[in-house]
């Protein structure tokens, strides 16, 4: 009641009423929709440059509000030898530890403060660091990410703390039947570095000291062996940020070619299901035409269901799923794969 009475008294004051009417009438009229013009930004091409130290930088400016950046180094599992098997698994878990200029706490909090996300992964060919961040703050996050990749300190007390994370990843890995099958497949199919697993053995957890990690990084993580690729960033801006880093110009040691050989590996496990893979030698990535042809072939043999265009009457080879369906009435899953290495 008090609020209504006060409003009625204010409405009777002619000065306030007049000012309210004038203020309302002075508001700008909305523009017609036809008057608004949307200007499209010019399309940019991929830019690639090589720094004096041999580091390759390639970028694509697509005006995205989020910049996605990858640091790719030729330091995958195939570069391990008998003295450091599993070290790349330890190395990817060491991402975010202290560098030569910043502590682990500073790296974590500064990247989190700008809303960034830094992850590390490995393949048999490469060690990869992935960074996602708001494009306006990429210079802050990239400063820490580049040091994590190229200038790790490997303090022994921090390296010792990695062991519990490795045991956790190994436990998760063993629950992934497809991952276990792929590791066994590589061990049976290749002779050489490609037979090395992406996961460390249990008895090797904690045996890779800070000195071993430093030696591996010094030998393999160098400027000529690395590529920095970014989407949503300017090439000059990324290149300028890397010029301040003191990186090794050593080309490093190349891997010995791995030979494909016939073999068989069996792993016993509990359960009623069986995972199996039968492979033959494919094509290397240097043969682009054969890689593309095998990729299409694997897609055709692995797909299931009707063809993409049912109105076009073309004969296609039966997929592995269709062949398996004719052989059993029990639950199954079948697909085809094509993996290419250098």
UniProtKB/TrEMBL annotation:
It is found in: Mitochondrion. Transmembrane segments: none annotated. Its main location: mitochondrion. The keyword Phosphoprotein does not apply. GO terms for cellular component: membrane; mitochondrion. Keywords: Mitochondrion, Transit peptide. InterPro entries: Metalloenz_LuxS/M16, MPP/UQCRC_Complex, Pept_M16_N. One of its GO terms (molecular function) is metal ion binding. It comes from Amblyomma cajennense. Residues 57-199 form the Peptidase M16 N-terminal domain. The keyword Mitochondrion applies. Pfam families: Peptidase_M16. This is Putative ubiquinol cytochrome c reductase subunit qcr2.
């Amino acid at each position: 009641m008090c609020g209504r009475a006060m409003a009625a008294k204010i409405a009777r004051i002619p000065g306030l009423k007049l000012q309210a009417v004038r203020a309302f009438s002075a508001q700008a009229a909305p523009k017609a929709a036809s008057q608004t013009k949307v200007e499209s930004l010019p399309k940019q091409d991929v830019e690639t440059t090589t720094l004096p130290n041999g580091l390759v930088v390639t970028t694509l400016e697509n005006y995205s509000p989020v910049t996605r950046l990858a640091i790719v180094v030729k330091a995958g599992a195939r570069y391990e030898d008998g003295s450091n098997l599993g070290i790349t698994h330890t190395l990817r878990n060491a991402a975010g530890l202290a560098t030569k200029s910043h502590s682990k706490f500073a790296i974590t909090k500064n990247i989190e403060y700008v809303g960034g996300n830094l992850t590390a992964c490995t393949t048999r060919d490469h060690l990869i660091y992935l960074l996602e961040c708001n494009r306006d703050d990429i210079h802050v996050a990239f400063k820490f990410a580049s040091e994590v990749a190229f200038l790790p300190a490997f303090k022994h007390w921090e390296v010792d703390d990695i062991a519990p994370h490795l045991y956790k990843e190994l436990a998760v890995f063993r629950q992934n039947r497809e991952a276990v099958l792929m590791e066994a497949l590589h061990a049976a199919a290749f002779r050489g570095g490609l037979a090395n697993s992406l996961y460390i053995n249990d008895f090797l957890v904690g045996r890779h000291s800070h000195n071993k990690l430093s030696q591996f990084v010094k030998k393999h993580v160098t400027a000529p062996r690395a590529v920095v690729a970014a989407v949503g960033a300017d090439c000059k801006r990324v290149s300028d940020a890397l010029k301040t880093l003191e990186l090794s110009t050593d080309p490093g040691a190349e891997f010995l070619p791995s030979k494909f050989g016939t073999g068989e590996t069996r792993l016993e496990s509990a359960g009623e299901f069986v995972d199996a893979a039968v492979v033959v030698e494919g094509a290397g990535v240097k043969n682009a035409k054969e890689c593309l042809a095998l990729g299409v072939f694997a897609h055709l043999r692995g797909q299931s269901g009707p063809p993409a265009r049912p109105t076009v009457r073309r004969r296609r080879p039966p997929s592995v799923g269709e062949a398996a369906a004719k052989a059993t009435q029990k639950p199954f899953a079948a697909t085809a794969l094509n993996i290419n290495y250098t």
